[in-house]
Write a structure and sequence with these properties.
Blueprint: E1 13-17, H1 29-37, E2 42-44, E3 47-49, E4 55-57, H2 92-100, E5 108-110, H3 117-124, H4 130-133, E6 139-142, H5 148-154, E7 159-164, H6 167-174, E8 180-184, H7 191-202, E9 206-210, H8 215-223, E10 228-231, H9 234-246, H10 257-260, H11 273-286, E11 303-304, E12 311-312
Parallel strand pairs: 1-2, 1-10, 2-5, 6-7, 7-8, 8-9, 9-10
Antiparallel strand pairs: 3-4, 11-12
């Protein structure tokens, strides 16, 4: 298997975290369009399923934080944001329509279809030649091992990424099933994180970094040669990337900050990483439709896909090179209406990406 590339800064992609969420209501069409206008290569978003089976672009399991509603998503499908300018919460099909507009053909989308991969497949199948033109642009971001087999079953032609905090969890439960990993920035700063990036590169797997809003973190992530950097501040990252491409010396952290940066935040310290990992493990064991011990998924009945080196179900199409993620839940009646659990980090970048 060929190594994945060490990307030059000009080739590192900028993904808008829930759109341009630092300045506009997150996960709205206005936010998505603003991020594209600011130069985003991808749009990261999140997905929930309402009580009537509509897939909405929304991050939290409840409505209270960002909308004029209250309670769970599944109980109230028609809601609007509270942050100005007030926006309706968009549907998944509206997001796909947006990125299929001719001027947006370059854009990738990320969202977290936390359930109903069959419904996502149904929506995608409405587009002509979708398996050739759209599916290769979509990456399914899987935050729980239980999502792996349904991803093969319902959307086998889409690339799979793991979205999480811990590199060790990525290695243990997702390594064989996923072509790439979107990992929290702080967990990649130290030697273990750098080894993970090197091992991914040697195995031909991609690495993305979330959520990077500080300019010095942006500079640091650029030196890693990753596939993509996720940010709330698309304009800032796009401009900084442009400056570094024009003058490579600007990738260096300026002044004395270059010396103390690795010790400038408690999250960068290696002794905090086991605690962050335990937090993720606790969430995986409890905040899902099947609470209990984690198990590595058996992939013996899945054949390898030569396109990205990871297994795909029999009869699947070749994977494309997109950058996004989408957590999902197996399609069984007991899972209907399940809400997304996002308790182990400030960001759960799950998405359906289109590139």
């Amino acid at each position: 298997m060929a190594d994945s590339p060490v990307r030059a800064v000009k080739d590192i992609q900028v993904w808008g975290h829930r759109g341009a969420s630092a300045f506009l209501p997150e996960n709205t069409l206005a936010s998505f369009r603003a991020a594209i206008k600011e130069g985003a290569d991808a749009i990261e978003s999140d997905v929930h399923v309402t009580s009537d089976g509509v897939i909405l672009m929304f991050h939290d399991p409840t409505l209270d934080r960002t909308t004029n509603g209250s309670g769970t998503i599944k109980s109230q499908p028609n809601v609007r944001t509270t942050k100005e300018p007030v926006q309706p919460v968009p549907r998944f099909d509206q997001l796909i329509d947006l990125i299929m507009e001719p001027e947006n053909k370059h854009v990738k989308l990320n969202n977290d279809p936390e359930g109903l991969f069959p419904e996502i497949a149904r929506i995608l199948s409405k587009y002509e030649n979708w398996e050739q033109e759209l599916a290769p642009r979509i990456i399914l971001g899987l935050w729980h091992p239980l999502f792996i087999r349904p991803a093969y079953k319902y959307l086998p032609s889409c690339t799979r990424y793991h979205i999480g905090i811990s590199p060790s969890i990525a290695r243990q439960y997702f390594w064989d099933a996923c072509a790439g990993f979107s990992i929290n920035f702080s967990m990649l700063v130290g030697s273990e994180g750098q080894k993970f990036i090197a091992d991914c590169r040697a195995a031909g797997k991609e690495v993305c970094v979330w959520t990077v809003n500080d300019p010095n973190e942006m500079r640091t992530a650029m030196t890693w040669g990753v596939q993509a950097i996720l940010t709330d501040k698309v304009g800032l990252l796009t401009e900084l990337k442009k400056e570094v491409v024009e003058d490579p010396s600007k990738v260096d952290i300026p002044g004395l900050a270059a010396y103390w940066f690795p010790w400038s935040h408690w999250r960068y310290y290696a002794f905090t990483h086991p605690w962050l990992e335990r937090t993720q493990l606790d969430a995986l064991r409890t905040n899902c439709y099947q609470p209990g011990p984690l198990h590595k998924v058996d992939l013996e009945d899945l054949k390898p896909n030569g396109a990205n080196g990871t297994p795909v179900a029999n009869g699947s199409a070749e994977n494309g090179h997109a950058v996004t993620a989408a957590a999902e839940q197996p399609a069984q009646p007991a899972y209907d209406g399940l809400e997304k659990a996002d308790t182990f980090g400030a960001h759960q970048p799950v998405a359906v990406a289109a590139a």
